[in-house]
Amino acid sequence: MLRWNIYFISHMSGDGMRSDFAIRLVTHLYWIKKEAFALERDIYSYWTIFAVEDGRFIYRIGDQQGEAGLGSLVVCPPNTWFHRKTLEPLSFHFIHFTWNAEPSLEEIQLLSGALKITDIERLRSNYLYLRMLALEQDKTAMERKQHLVSDIWRLYELETNMPREIGLNGMLADVEMRTAAQLIIDNAFGPIDMKSLALSLQLTPVQLTRRFRAAYGMTPSEYTTRLRLDRASKLLLETELSIEKIAQLCGYENGFYLSRIFRSKRGMPPSQYRSMPRV
């Protein structure tokens, strides 16, 4: 069976996920207006995606459960029971794939369940072409499917990791996530423990990460890093403080660690950033 590499570039490494990895497409099928699943639960030897094009269904995968419709990519790890029931006639793309290297247990939790895409127009375009290729399994068709599925994953990654302003998007967050955001703001420049933050909201770390990302487009750790680097950038341009002192003021143990994070996230070392023109 032919397998095609699809690269999924992710910046969720702050919460334990590798910075980049690839998936290998194994199978793509398309189901049209399915009234009911032949089995109310099934288990697969591959990672599986149900990409809904029309209709709705409810699912349960481990401790993840909910309702899925257009814009949902419902992802199930291998050798895991996938419980599902249609709520209305369902048209969806069925995709089997493997990773180039197996995700960690934390990554598996983050990637399981319903992943959301909001750019429905672009998603529909990809689904249209996948639907046209659905019955074809030759090499050329699989290469084209690779491109389309890859684009869907990149779209998910882009939406997930593009920073959204907390203030502008706060209206979409529930009370708990607004509380989490404010707690991060209040404590970003000192020691901050995400596990303790989650427990204070009566959530698990995985639940906090998933809900915070859904509300704000970034994980709690990514938001903390953003706040710290924004302050560091401001201090670099507006003061003559040493890198060591700036690190202390921004919640980092030392200047070396700040420099490493700054270079990784801002694309240049602090010394180069400081040399930028000031106005």
TrEMBL record:
Keyword Transcription attached: yes
The cross-references to SUPFAM superfamilies, in alphabetical order and at most eight, read: Homeodomain-like (SSF46689), Regulatory protein AraC (SSF51215)
Please give one Pfam family short name. HTH_18
InterPro entries linked to this entry:
AraC_XylS_family_regulators, Homeodomain-like_sf, HTH-like, HTH_AraC, HTH_AraC-typ_CS
Question: Which ranges carry the HTH araC/xylS-type domain?
Answer: 178-276
Q: Which residues form a coiled coil?
A: none
Statement: the UniProt record of this protein carries the keyword Cytoplasm: yes
Question: Which N-terminal stretch is annotated as signal sequence?
Answer: none
In alphabetical order, the GO MF annotations are: DNA-binding transcription factor activity; sequence-specific DNA binding
Q: Which domain of life is it from?
A: Bacteria
Q: Which UniProt keywords apply?
A: Activator, Cytoplasm, DNA-binding, Transcription, Transcription regulation
Q: Which PANTHER family match?
A: HTH-TYPE TRANSCRIPTIONAL ACTIVATOR RHAS, HTH-TYPE TRANSCRIPTIONAL ACTIVATOR RHAS-RELATED
Tell me what this protein is called. Answer: AraC family transcriptional regulator
Source organism (scientific name)? Paenibacillus lutimineralis
